[in-house]
Amino acid sequence: MTLKGAFLAASALVSVTATALSAEVLTIATVNNGDMVRMQKLTDDFTAKTGHEVNWVTLEENTLRTRVTTDITTKGGAFDIMTIGMYETPIWGANGWLVPLDDLSADYDADDILPAMRQGLSHDGTLYAAPFYGESSMIMYRTDLMQEAGLEMPKAPTWEFIREAAAAMTDREKDINGICLRGKAGWGEGGAFITVTANSFGARWFDENWTPQFDQPEWEEALTFFVDMMNNYGPPGYATNGFNENLSLFQQGKCGMWIDATVAASFVTNPDDSTVADKVGFALAPNKEGVEKRANWLWAWALAIPAGTQKEEAAKQFIEWATSKEYIELVAANEGWANVPPGARQSLYDNPEYQKVPFAQMTLDSILAADPNDPTVDPVPYVGVQFVAIPEFAGIATDVSQEFSAVYAGQQTVAEALEKAQALTLDAMEAAGY
Amino acid sequence: MARAVTTQRKAINTAFAWGVGLLIFFPILWTILTSFKTEAQAISDPPVFLFFDWTLENYAAVQERSNYARFLWNSIIIAVGSTILGTIIAVPAAWSMAFVPSKRTKDILLWMLSTKMLPAVGVLYPIYLLFIRLGWLDTQIGLVLVLMLINLPIIVWMLYTYFREIPGEILEAARMDGASLKDEIIYVLTPMAVPGIASTILLNIILAWNEAFWTLNLTAANAAPLTAFIASYSSPEGLFYAKLSAASVMAIAPILIMGWFSQKQLVRGLTFGAVK
To answer: What residues make up the domain containing A146?
Structure first.
């Protein structure tokens, strides 16, 4: 062996030993959905590249939220990486609870992250969580029923068109509802949908002085429109329907249109689960004629590192791996382009292979149509499209959405619900010192 | 003279009991059936009952994704450990309250029960902070202790009720025959209270097995029991009902089997009385 060869062999040995010595076991809290489950399956690739092992803690969304919030507020240190959303990230970042992700490697190409996602996951211009996947909401509709109704879905329809189409597609004898929308109480369920609907009618949660706006005519118009349309053309019992219930109805051919998360597109076009897989078209979420804002939200599940973790370097390596361009290619190679995590990187939408996926362009257009820093027609003091990024919002919006769900269930009128929503929001905001 | 029961009345009672039994069992039966369906069949409307293509794919998927044995082992340690520890503490406490009550015994019993009236989430943060300080977060010992403390009032109350039904005269007679306190508890009280103690232990194992607030909130990757295993298959954005059902069946199967084999003791203990 030459001297050079011996030196190289020794270097390799040192390198392997160093990797083994610095190998960490990361505990990652995550949410249960198809993209996250796929990531868990592919973790071996990360371990092979870095030597770090991963322990997964997978929980249902609401349980996860409680769990990670308890841990981060008490500095429990149970997790090295947390999966959090756009609601938590700016609040936690502002509180100094998260490690800033402003020193990711050049190879990572942080500038490739879609601007809307980057803004929603930053505080004061600093990124605190890297988007694993992003979503907006859009219209999914039955192309066959639309054709039978003699209508053509515009790329960017108005609410008036949606109501007209819902009326034309409804066929109670065949158990087909013209439109299926969320009515279930909960700030992330029906609360999110009615908030973006209100945005598209020119309403807002608060004015610049944090005064609730439920007593304004825009809210009354939005809620009345929603209730009338759903009562006439929606499924029975829509007051308790959330994402899963509507997905189930749509997949069984019982909805003419469904406006919901863009991530649903891969479910409704999957022939294994959906009876209407080859008859689905997509369009931008609607707006009221003349209102510039559309009823589409913006959300991302993102990976963040709690401040104080002992394994910051390994955690950053994982985040770079899981949200990289290479990871997207890894998923595509293993599961196909339709199953890659969408909505996070511009390069994905520039990829000719991904452009062949039928819902790819509409997903991007929907994401680009939402602006978390300017979500409403009139100016607001908050960030967030379907939520208001303040700690009090989750509690307030859950209560408000319960009042609205009571309207959907026929237990009270629109006016009564709005009056109660105004009063309870006012009380909560005053108590919180706004 | 025993009251005569007509055949017709017997038939009605039997039918009613079966009806109620089936009604209670139906959700479990439906979960079991759903676990053998595809995700599409699980949500089909009208629902399919028995006539579908039975599949084991959900069990295979769950098995592939999760380390079931680890969750099961944690459940066994936590449920059995907390129950044994609780029983060791509760037997002497219940004995003293039943046979040598003081002026404050009733108050103490009520106070113990009142700890169950506070919603668990009300003490989440203090307990969590305590666990961080003690290094018990995500450990079996931490969960054994917290579940023991949570179920202790129930164990004491149940044992106290059983012990109260044992006539004090029997213990007095033993004492007159020269039995020490130790002999009295081991040779007289315990044999008479075995059905009561057994049913208390069984019921508390079931309660600890199914506890889903503390076991979810105080664990991460190491000490998570089967409740966390089920929670990992629930999702508000995606239809995983068949897989969730398979995970549920795998989580409840051990306790269901244990309950099935010990139902005689459970019923006997719940209707226990020394002079019956």
So the answer is: 137-296+376-431
